[in-house]
Specification:
mainly alpha; 13 helices; disordered N terminus
Length: 254
């Protein structure tokens, strides 16, 4: 099984040296925290995990049959995965933010950064960001994972475009004006010019996969399925558990 957020390495051009003051660094860190908000982890996982697990089950004939015979199997897997995914994201976010902060510090002056921070903290942008996460399904990203390939920039761009379009429609007229006024300003256009660099960073960290997470996901997936099946067919669950124990024993002897 291909673990979510498989590790990816990508060559990057050497970044130009920029002298960054303590104040500038603090603003960049604040911007990075606004762009990569910790409080959105649960919301994002609630939106994406069911899609990912559903596609995983639908891609496997035996799992599809098991889901039909034991309704709720996918929900059991989602519940088992969630704590692991939260831990992995909490481990990843400081690194993700550090790279994002570096991008902003290299490309903007202190006054520009301060103006960006004000915009990102505005009710209009916060509403847009909240709605974007609520509309996020990451179907293309899930397809990449199910097909056992790295999550691509194209998939991330497509998923975000879908959710962003829906989110924009949910803004009030005043909120839309605020966002459009900023994004059409010289500073807003300068930010748009960094879209590809930001996408590369997003893609890199979307593919983050600590080794421990892959091992734990494989184990809890099996445990969750057996525990769920045991609720309605204890005998089958016991047989499955015994079979897995025998397989593991044989593997260790070999």
């Amino acid at each position: 099984m291909h673990a979510p957020f498989a590790a990816q390495t990508a060559a990057a051009a050497p970044a130009p040296q920029v002298t960054v003051s303590t104040e500038m660094s603090a603003v960049c860190d604040r911007i990075a925290a606004l762009v990569v908000p910790t409080e959105q982890i649960e919301s994002r996982l609630n939106q994406t995990l069911p899609t990912l697990v559903r596609q995983l089950i639908e891609s496997d004939r035996e799992l599809t049959i098991m889901e039909r015979e034991f309704p709720g199997l996918s929900d059991a897997v989602v519940a088992a995965w969630r704590p692991i995914m939260v831990r992995a994201e909490n481990e990843m976010i400081p690194q993700y933010r550090a790279e994002m902060a570096d991008m902003y510090c290299r490309n903007f002056t202190l006054p520009e950064l301060q103006e960006i921070a004000v915009f990102l903290q505005s009710p209009a942008f916060q509403a847009l960001q909240k709605s974007t996460y609520q509309n996020l399904s990451l179907s293309r990203t899930a397809d990449d994972i199910i097909d056992e390939r790295d999550i691509s920039a194209k998939s991330i761009r497509g998923d975000l475009a879908d959710s962003g379009a829906k989110a924009a429609m949910e803004l009030s007229p005043e909120q839309k004006r605020t966002v459009m006024t900023f994004m059409s300003s010289p500073l807003g256009r300068k930010m748009v010019g960094l879209t590809q660099e930001k996408l590369a960073i997003d893609t890199k960290w979307a593919n983050y996969a600590p080794d421990w997470a892959a091992v734990e996901i494989e184990k809890v997936t099996i445990d969750a399925m057996i525990a769920h099946i045991a609720k309605t067919d204890p005998k089958l669950a016991q047989e499955m558990s015994a079979q897995l124990t025998a397989q593991n024993g044989a593997a260790k002897r070999n």
